[in-house]
Amino acid sequence: MAILKAYQGQGLGKIILSHSEKFLANNSVKTIWCNAREVAVPFYKSNNYVPIGNAFNIKDVGLHYVMYKIL
């Protein structure tokens, strides 16, 4: 998931994430995970995602963390 910079901070990411989580939970998915860019970690933490392990680099993109949430 990504939101264009011009539209960040308007709550769109939270809307997309919430809708996606509801859809997945309604389809018997129990856990969701993502590779979160370092700058997105606070967003995911504010939506109850938990980081796993250390940061890792994705070439030409930057540092990421694996994060998960039990639905």
From TrEMBL:
The keyword DNA-binding does not apply. The keyword Transferase applies. Keywords: Transferase. GO terms for molecular function: acyltransferase activity, transferring groups other than amino-acyl groups. It comes from Algibacter pectinivorans. It comes from the Bacteria. SUPFAM superfamilies: Acyl-CoA N-acyltransferases (Nat) (SSF55729). Pfam families: Acetyltransf_10. Residues 1-71 form the N-acetyltransferase domain. InterPro entries: Acyl_CoA_acyltransferase, GNAT_dom. This is Acetyltransferase (GNAT) family protein. Gene3D superfamilies: 3.40.630.30.
